[in-house]
Amino acid sequence: MLLRHTPTEIKERSALSINPAKTCQPIGAMYAALGVKGCLPHSHGSQGCCAYHRSTLTRHYKEPVMAATSSFTEGSSVFGGQSNLVQAIDNIFTIYNPEVIAVHTTCLSETIGDDLTQITRKAHEEGKVPAGKHIIYASTPSYVGSHVTGFANMVKGMVNCLSEKTEVKNGKMNIIPGYVEPSDMEEIKRIASEMGISTIMFPDTSNVLNGPQTGRYHMFPRGGVSVEDLKSTGDSMATIALGKTASSAAALALETKCGVKCDILDLPIGLHGTDRYVDALRKMACVSVPDSINRDRGQLVDVITDMHQYFYGKKVAIAGDPDQLIALTEFLVSIDMYPVHVVTGTPGKQFEKTILDLTKHLPVKVNVKSHSDLFMLHQWIKNEPVDLLIANTYGKYIARDEDIPFIRYGFPILDRVGHSYFPTVGYKGGLRLVEKILDAILERKDRDAPEENFELVM
Amino acid sequence: MSTKESLKYEVNGTEMTPEEIKTDMTRIYPSKVARKRAKHIMVNKVCDDGCVPEIESNVRTIPGIITQRGCSYAGCKGVVLGPTRDIVNITHGPVGCSFYSWLTRRNQTKPEAETDENFMTYCFTTDMQEEDIVFGGEKKLKACIQEAYDLFKPKAISIFSTCPVGLIGDDVHAVAKEMKEKLGVNVFAFSCEGYKGVSQSAGHHIANNGLFTHIIGLDDTIKKGKYKVNLLGEYNIGGDAFELERIFDKCGITLHSTFSGNSTYDGFANSHTADLNTVMCHRSINYVAEMMEKKYGIPWFKVDFIGAAATAKSLRKIAAYFEDPELIAKVEEVIAEEMPEVEMVMADVKTRCNGKTAALVVGGSRAHHYQELFSEIGMTTLMAGYEFGHRDDYEGRKVIPTIKVDADSRNIEELEVSADEVRYKPRKSAEELAKLKEEGIDWADYVGMMPEMKDGAFVIDDISQYETDYIIENLKPDIFCAGIKEKYAVQKHGIPLKQLHSYDYGGPYAGFKGAVNFYKDIDRMVNSKIWGYSKAPWDLNPELSAAFANS
């Protein structure tokens, strides 16, 4: 047993977090920044944060993740990090020549009170920012929220630093995709494009963190939202923001700054979530839904109806980020599965209400907790076993100890590939999720079957 | 004059001297940065008496330079204390630091029984929130320690401070002391805030001091075993320690305590009763070896178990230390038994790898040790460097007296160590030590990486991403060894990268069986067809044939 010390008996913990189901803000900010074309993320703090964030993102995406750091030592921690950051900006533009530097703080620079607005202004005044180049920034203290909060803050930073309103509308729809995989961003764009809608997606990590092997390394890959497009977001017809936790801050900031109306939806995971996304696109852009999308939808519904017997009444434990968990819970409930244990590490009371609301008609008790951890989830599972566990890579320890079918989902996935290439959003993504769930359940059924019941056909 | 052959380089069809390459490599930098970086980039040149050029290292990374380096916390918790399975390691800080150091170094561990303690799969943190930063986190830390104790009843609990903890001034040591008295188990803390020092190396030093102050020497039980050896600076990545344990066991040498691969708290506590300290990773743990020599009289020497010849040499050195003909014979017997398989694979792999080149920038010893494995299969190291090495790791310990101590190093505490009144027991007399030295045992010494590299090879300290790309594009090594952050960028260039911090999912690479694994992995990587796939057929042969269109 790998988690041999986890007791079944649950004792209330007031202070100790064990096996967290979240991580810290700057990594989310770094991920968001990578979705800007020609952008080098910059971590303002000591260099360990930057190293850890780059390592974890690299392990998750299996792609280069470049970022610079202010390399604080004890001196900078005492006297402030201004000179480090100004020097870093100068060096970065000279050596690596990005279009944009996206600076985020760490708990170190936040605690000593470094003011990024003032420091970046100084860098501009001192001529450290070449003409036509940009700095965007966000405050991302690690002791508030989680990696999702950091993502949200950096996306908001893009709006704050770059979005502009001119008198000329661009005829485009802004889409803020949420803290999802590059493959998901691509699929969210594809759906809109299939409906004939021009979009500006920000951030957009497709073609950045799932790029091709060409034998040539480019520090700044082809993908990402351009600065020009980011500026233009203030002239778009509307914004669709997907996932409240990750995307509403930027959508609301853009509405306030440039008067672009926004619609904040849950992530388009599963049938109903995707229906709402497609419907919102249709209404906001005044277009009709093309046959190709109806066909994708029909295929998903078809497989769900065909395979219903394998889903019905199965108990599921899920851990991950709030936006994903809300959408996943709705999806699981829609196919008659019972998400009985739901844990997120990200703080926020609304989350628990939303999950309980989505599951209130189920004939089983649902445990839900925000700002909780995988230790708690494991204890719940020990008390009320499940048929399936859906969590990030760290869930594999629980799955092995408790002998539960397991699907890797969320962030980070350190030991498998696929997530950055195949979407789980949209109808096609729904189909992939259904396939993964079925595979997990049926593989288990095959494994456990006595020889006389080992089946060949359905 | 050295008679050694010096490396030559051909860049884009023209021969360039290493000095010309160096000048070209630093051209892009702002002049101040170029001046600084030039001191970290050395063209190797070994004099007859072993002297090498002076390299600048263990100084601050220039802000904005994309660096491989991590922080003090990573060195302390991640590297040194992390691999010990039965200590509850609590990270005091916001959630991130603990999360990123949770099982990510592939330190394997194997408790003897199913019921034995193993906390390595757990990640413990105070998950500090804004109010803890504003009002202080000591109360929460105390509650955490209590909760951890109530849940797990461990024999020891340790606390690791992260950046904000140092800034707000939580007294983690006072909390540890108080909780130690209250709970009756060993509770101790490390002030390893990320901003301390200039790299992971500061954290190693802090960890060493903590181990020495709080654990080593607590248990005086004299354990069984004929030749009791501690192995320091071995972290059981990918099962390295398991292979070394197998070899030691076969030789009849008792692996008394390891620091800290597959290690236990009790092993640390009792380690001062061993007969000899051997040091693998000089950088991460030489402090413990030195302090144990002063306080307990245990001599130490450097060993290297990376590579078959290095393993054999280290085993012979240990046997020579004990001066027991029976052990010396046994070690020879084991080497003779193990070598045929190694030599067979080495010879086979060499037919395909001979003449190929490698570059290594990793850690603070591995970039040195692994060169021997490469040379065994005929590969040359064109460039090597350390992420967090000091001058002695590059140039050898003889330069220690001449190392300038700057403010960043001065911030890391040096312990005052003297002989323990009760426990100090010289293992060998001065005469015996001198005699063994004459016979070739280099007590408390380390020759460093540069004297063992070819003339004209590049030695680069704290390499930047720009320099990494430059080296790959111009020196065109056949394989690059570094860590996960570098892996995929290097591979986009079209050459393989072997992770030498974690070995990817491979290993072990230590000892005899490890050497075999490594030869095979490198053979697979440098001779694989896959690196030729990046161009599509239509890119290789773009001319069009109109045969089908016309028919």
Short description:
The complex is a heterodimer of chains A (about 450) and B (about 550). Chain A is an alpha/beta fold and about 450 residues long.
Structural class of chain A: alpha/beta
Task: Tell how many strands the DSSP assignment of chain A holds.
Answer: 14
Ranges of chain B where pLDDT stays below 50 over 5 or more residues in a row are: none
What is the helix content of chain B? Answer: 40-55%
Oligomer: heterodimer
Shape of chain A: globular
- Give the helix tally of chain B: 23
How far is it from the N-terminal to the C-terminal residue of chain A, by CA? 35 Å
- What is the CA-atom radius of gyration of chain B, in angstroms? 25 Å
The major pleated sheet of chain A works out as: 5 strands, parallel
Sheet of most strands of chain B:
6 strands, mixed
Biggest interface, chains and residues, is: A-B, 87 and 95 residues
Give the percentage of residues in beta strands of chain A.
Answer: 5-15%
Q: Average pLDDT of chain B, to the nearest integer? A: 96
In angstroms, what separates the terminal alpha carbons of chain B? 73 Å
